[in-house]
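Q: Could you predict the 3D structure of Exocyst complex component Sec10?
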Amino acid sequence: MFPEAPKFRPLFEGARKEVGDLCLKIDVVLDKLRMDFVAYENKHKESFEELQEGVEDLTENFDRLDSRVASVSETAAEIGDQLKFMMYFNETSGYVGEEPSLFFDDDRVAEAAAVAQKLRAIAEDSISGVHGVPAHTALNGNGGLEVAAKNLQAYCNELENRLLGKFDAASQKGDLWTMRNCAIILNQFNKGGSVMQRYIASRPMFMDLEVMSKDAHAILGTEEGIAQVDDLMNSLASVYKEIAACVESLFKSYLEDYAEFELTSLNQLHKAKVQTLLLSWKLKYQKTLELKSCPLADISQSRRNSILHPFSPVSPQRRNSAMHSYAPISVSVVEEFVEWNEEAVTRCKLLTLKEPPGILATNMKAIFTCLLDQVSQYVTEGLERAIEALKEAAALRERFMFNSNTNRKVVSAMAVAAEAASSAGESSFRAFMAAIQSATTNMTMLQRFFNASVSQSLLAQEGAHAACCDAIASAIADAENAALRGLQGSLDTVLAEVERLLAAEQKATDYKLLDESLTPEPTTACSSVITFVTRMAEVTNGALDGLNREAFLIQLGYGLYKSLIQNWKRFAFNPSGGLRLKRDVSEYAAFARRFMTPAVDEKFVLFGILIELRDDYKKAKVANILSSMNT
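A: Sure. Here are the predicted structure tokens for Exocyst complex component Sec10:
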């Protein structure tokens, strides 16, 4: 129908070859530009990090300087005040100047007592010439501090008597708060000896002479003589037994509600610790946002957001979720929980020592259940936070996802944002693996504590031990369910990044080499995928163990195998391209042999053997092999 068509065939073939060559050159130029851009970004990032470290060091130095200046200023002011006070007490008559209000203010008695004691010591040391203070140091024309020492001693005596009177009045009223405050201040005078003596003397057992006489008569014997040693010991034992019984009755009402008080205390400690952690995480997150908001001279605002903070613009919901990513599961926190519970268990055993075994078991069960609830909540919520970080990374990845059909200009424009999403995905993967490792350690710690400190005491009450074991199993099941969901999200994250690397770096010319005499090297996509998956496998090996690790790596290996088969089906091959595919398969098989299970290794080995056994790859009919593969 078109007799002239053969004349134009050479022209079209030449044009097609030139277009192919131009495409290859363009790919080379784009690769070079991309590499240059990545190098430029890395250099910029290093410069920014160095600048950030410098600013942090400078800020820290300024803080130290400011703290030092404030300390010196405060010390100077304190010395000045003490010199003024010393001059006041060293005057024999008619002090010239304003009288210090400190020594006449009832609200500052504690401070006045401390200052007076310190000044008195200095004055006495000055007189005796000890502690490096020269004798007869003159503050005025009096020649020394003898007057100051005398006046300060008189003031201290007057203040001590005034506080003792206040203590006595508070003691009669039963005002424990005032008694406590007076006792704290009086402890500065002869180490509190006067207040202790005053308090003991005011007790009825030392004031009632008749009671004291009866006790002495009961212990020492009759009026005619001293009792025998055996009688004396029996009398003492009777008295001590009676006292132990004036003591048990005093605390009996409190011990009845002991477990309630203990549980309230443990819950308050737990709540305060969690609030402190949340505040710390919030401050860390805000600091991160501030650092990422610092201007970079050569990068536009929109590009900076895409590089440094892929969540921009940040909604309140996403901000909260991102903040939670800074809240990892900590082993030290659970160690603190267990330490508090261990102290509570020790108190429980001591305070219920004389109670029936069933009471001890009941209290021990309640105390351990409190710890179990705290640890279970902390671990499960920590895993959920790590899962949310995986979901955030997945949502970010969806925004910048592209495949082999995406226009190259669009791919180039999305490259930076896609790499930022990739970095977020890898970070969330690492964070979840760290969370699952900490969760495992914490639950193991909890079981060991139960077996070592709690288990034996529960056997006295029927069903208590079994109930605690069931509760532990339930807590572990909750953590395992969260872990399984997170592992699935982690697997999706790794495989999605594999597909992104294959789509971004596997070129049409990878398996259609122009120079068929060259020894085939692994493709860039192959090297990138193996490097990435190796990092993820190493993280997995550190976080999981036993059957859990084996099951995860099997799923990862099968997913990698399927993604590779689907990727290769998109390409056409020439004979040299078939050899290069064989080289890629060998590289993947070597990776699987190193990290994966035998079942995964076998799939890659069989695929390599299948290519080698068939002659199709020599005739550039590799597609026939790939189309027959069952993924």
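Q: Anything worth pointing out?
A: Confidence is low (pLDDT under 50) at residues 130-143, 293-325.
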